[in-house]
Fold this protein.
Amino acid sequence: MKYENTFKAIDQILWKEQGCGSELDYLEQKSWMLFLKYLDDLETEREEEAELEGKTYKRLVTGDYRWSQWAAPKKKDAETGKMVIDMVNAMSGDDLVQFVDQKLFPFLKNFQNTAATTDTLEYKIGEIFGELHNKIRSGFNMREVINLIDELHFQSADDKHEMTVLYESNIQRMGNAGRNGGEYYTPRPLIRSIIKVVDPKIGETVYDPACGSAGFLCEAFLYMKDKIKSVKDHDTLQKNTFYGKEKKGLPYIIATMNMIFHGVSAPNISHGNTLAINLATIQESDRKNVILANPPFGGNERGEVLQNFEIKTSETAYMFMQHFIKMLKAGGRAGIVIKNTFLSNGDAKEIRKMLLENCNLHTVLDLPSGVFTGAGVKTVVLFFTKGEPTEKIWYYQVDKHFTKTQPLSEADMGEFLTLQKTKAESEHSWTLDVNTLDDACDLSVKNPNKVEVVDERTPQEIAESIYALNSENQDLINEIMEMLK
């Protein structure tokens, strides 16, 4: 990837910046500058397209606030004849920081007030810069980062694709930097597999009420984009398909920018606590066709939030499960990642009964603990359709060990996707008849077809495996120590 070294160089500069103390800060500060460069390229592209059609494009960002004015004023290099940054007239040091803090951010934040409607790119820009804060205190560090970002170009399809891939890898690092209220980066091979099973179609609404960095929504857009057959389809995907909500400020901003980077100009993502919605107030017009989510787990909601749910629980994931069921339209489909304890925990018994009575829980995908790097928890994916009770549940167990250096891949999901189409039985898959359940409604994973494997490795092979695991642990410790410097 031609831009990978540029991204690494930017991180090296931000590591030296006193205002940035974590992976979250690096991503946040890199994001707003990347976004403004991307926006400048996008507006230039739209300007050129309009000119070819004999029309005029009115820029959103104008005058001294254009990237080409405040960040990267250009002049022709006398030797090469190429346009390069005019370092004599380009701001740096305290002048640059003051301009960004006192002029640029307030100008962009005001777009919320000047935008005609909330479903526009202009309004989204205002939202983003109303939430973000510049944490870079050294104008010289900022100048170095700007110079690197200016080398990136986002006008070709290949360039845009590479940028989104690199940006996603940065989000992954953020998600795996440490535990953030039970939230972890959801591996993209897993998300893509969930989407293939649920199969959202153009004209349906897709919803993630705990969207984090919008991984599910971005991948759903890419999946559905390949099915566009008309201008109407394109407009439908842009404006009336994807809906998300995120409680925390930084992930909300990252989600909005991530969707714009992926090609959705004005994402329908809102900032707020989904669990603050009383289920009794949800109307038919609020419901969605498809729900894709990996809700946070834990119990840190206020007491009044618990009153919004028919079945009282302090576990956020169990509250979200009730929200999912209520928010699905009749015939709507869901793919939900949740801790595997949901299948047997006594506190979730009534929610399991609600799920089985109101929805067809047709598939349970059982995942090993290593799928989520650093999480140390086992999860399952629940696939269900609302509107008919469950009679049989098809289980599939991914029987493989994953690590940071050997993460889940597309190939690892291949057998699951093949067998799921017909719900076939195999060494890794089986079917449960719901009529055999007792009052506890225990849905835990008990594979009747699994063949016990005898470890036939030699002592030397076992020792080498232990050595490899120890090396991986030491690498993780070294990374943590590096971040703490």
Summary: The chain has two domains: 4-172, 178-436. Residues 393 and 432 are 5 Å apart (CA to CA).
